[in-house]
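re: ur question from the group chat, yeah i did fold both. here u go
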Amino acid sequence: MIANMFRGTGVALVTPFKKDKSVDFPALEKLVDHVIQHGVNYLVVLGTTGEPPTLSQEEKRNILACVIAKNNKRVPLVCGIGGNNTQAVIAQLSSYPVEHVDAILSVSPYYSKPTQAGIIAHFKELDKHTPRPIILYNVPGRTGSNMLAITTIQIAKECKNMIAVKEASGNMVQCMELVQHKPDNFLVLSGDDNLALAQIACGFDGVISVAANCFTQKFCDLIQASLRNDFITARQLQYQLLDGIDLLFAEGNPSGAKFVLSEMGICANEFRLPIVPVSSNTELAIKAYLQAF
């Protein structure tokens, strides 16, 4: 089953920028090599961590093309294509080079706060038109509406192209309900780096991670240990990484991740507004953590 290629650790890639705020494609290529060499199972481009609201459609297509070329089919590739305008999302599905990706990550419609029936209707419409399998993305902290477990399960059962969900509700009861009632071949993936160990213990199949940009090897080791039920090793890694993960999100995503990557010499600590760099206090805390790490 194609869904099985998304077990383990997927990394939600940042989009590097130069000082003039243009996309830094050489840095993006460097990041792709870094995460693959240190153990990620697949790449996710143009997810939330990639700052897609600030990118033009042409830039998005160029970023996707860059990652496709640099990856060169070394690991599976997922592209983020979602929105709160169903017809616009369908149009994007046909205008991106998705024939070169393995799946689409599509967020539950945001801002509009659709009902559960509206969310189901949205994904059923995408199911009719998508050329690639879709990973649903539930992130109520960003969308303003929660895709309930019963909703996700109905979509999974009724839509042949929906193969997984990235679940970032942070609600562990909802997470367990998903695992308990999902179809056999439907994956449940964590969208919360600090909860991934606990969620895998409950039956999740892996994670789409921000931390895997920065703490790649140890985070991938944590996920693999969890998946093989080696929770002694997993707990040791969890408590090495927990403070670092918290710091990545202390002032929003991807501000913390890009600061770490700049300290690693992979990309500049540059953003497009309204995202701004972390404060000097958080910089100092991250530097202290990295020195100990």
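okk and heres the other one u asked abt
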Amino acid sequence: MVENKKGLNRDTIKYLAIAAMTANHFAAVFLEQGTVLRMILLGIGNFTAITMCFFLVEGYGYTHSKKKYLGRLLLFAVLSQIPYCMAFSKQGVISFIGFNMLFTLLLCFLICLIVEKVPSMILKIILIILLMICSMKCDWGIGAPVFTLLFIWSKESVLKKKIAFIIPTVLFGLYNFIGRYGKVPVETCVLNVVICMVGMAMSGICILYFYNGKRAKTGRNFSKWFFYIFYPLHLLILAGGAKW
């Protein structure tokens, strides 16, 4: 990727991803199903998963300590689980609704580790399939491991990176179309498909054409911990708001 010094740095794009995620979660918790605003905010939220998987793969390559990176993901995944269930459980009763997205990113990190460290191709495939099955119980489902594998495959090739964004965006659109076709009016179905694809497409445009390949010059340590702390904190706020 050619560095664009005047473009957006990694931290700025991550803040955009957090804002998109927050909009998505707000809509899921507070807005009624079927409303256009809810549809739009949920679609905007699709910016987040593919963006965070891209930076996870990139971060895996430059992190000084993979063990510490893995430890941070595990720690905050555990801390976030109860707030996650509180925010998205229905009718005021806390129930298990799956594992939160930090567990998903943890599995994606393990996929990166397996691709790099496991020499046997057969064992590598078996382990990755097992992790993908585990991911089906997590937020973002099987999509995040697929994004991760595509970004590992793309490496430094701009063309491959474009393919890595286009393929899941199109497949996600088709999946949503098939899932809704015949259940809602055709125009509503098409509108929903377009909206759900926009977030992922904007992630690709943002990273491929505006990302400068750098971190922010200042506040790096603050940003690193903010991204972890904000996740369980905003879930607690959403859960509190839903209760009242």
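fwiw on the second one: The chain has a mean pLDDT of 92. The radius of gyration is 18 Å. idk if thats what u expected
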